[in-house]
UniProtKB/TrEMBL annotation:
Listed NCBIfam families: F420_MSMEG_4141
Classification via Pfam families: Bac_luciferase (PF00296)
InterPro entries tied to this protein: F420-G6PD/mer (IPR050564), Lucif-like_OxRdatse_MSMEG_4141 (IPR019922), Luciferase-like_dom (IPR011251), Luciferase-like_sf (IPR036661)
Taxonomic source organism: Actinomadura chokoriensis
Gene3D superfamilies for the chain: Luciferase-like domain
Top-level class of the enzyme under EC nomenclature: oxidoreductase
UniProt protein name: LLM class F420-dependent oxidoreductase
Amino acid sequence: MDKIELGRLGIWRPWSMLDAELAKDVEDLGYGAIWIGGSPRGDLKIAERLLGATDRIVVATGIVNMWATPAEEVAASYHRLHDAHGGRFLLGVGIGHPEATREYRSPYETIVRYLDRLDEADVPVEGRVLAALGPKVLRLAAERAAGAHPYFTTPEHTREARAALGAGPLLVPDQKVVLDTDTGRARAVAREAAERYLGLRNYVNSFKRLGFTDADVADGGSDALVDALIAHGDAAALAARVSGHLDAGADQVAVQVLGEDDPRPALRAIAETLA
């Protein structure tokens, strides 16, 4: 199986906020991939609908939660989508975070066992990516997957992730954006989106590896932390943050638009600015 070509720009959006019309419009805007967030169900019917509505764009999961979906179930979905849509589907899997799963234990060993089961079900290494933040799982993503899909990070993390992965594997971070030049209003939207992650230890540990402190993650997050994680401002400011990830070694950036029911204006503005 050849390496999937994603292009420089993708979008990330919860599965409940994706539909066929939006998928086609995103494809027409020139984006190369749609990353389905919010732990989509293992039958991947949402991916099937998006693939059926489009002609060339890659549809990826960001991510299927290993605790929620048996490897054998998602492997069957992978083969169904791969066979029907000419290799336009990319399976993203990950461990999630401990606060969401009562059974959460031995996360690294669980990831390894899950990848073993995907191997047994003939899901190719080139057809899957791994959610990864820390260096140990990033190295695993380089060894056992096509690459990594880090979530809620910065261009500095992307630079470190590229060093951990090496030159070959895919690296597709997400980047949250708010298209609003009113700093106070944009930060309020950004802080609301960031709040839940500031109580999750895998993300907090990731922020601290980047040099942020306990004070930065307290009380809804410091302005410095929120601004580093979530780009806000005009189209040029958002595009500059995306470019920061690309310059740091990302193959693609999955743009997540916050604060708008319709992400198209912001996605269009970013694409046109980077064209």
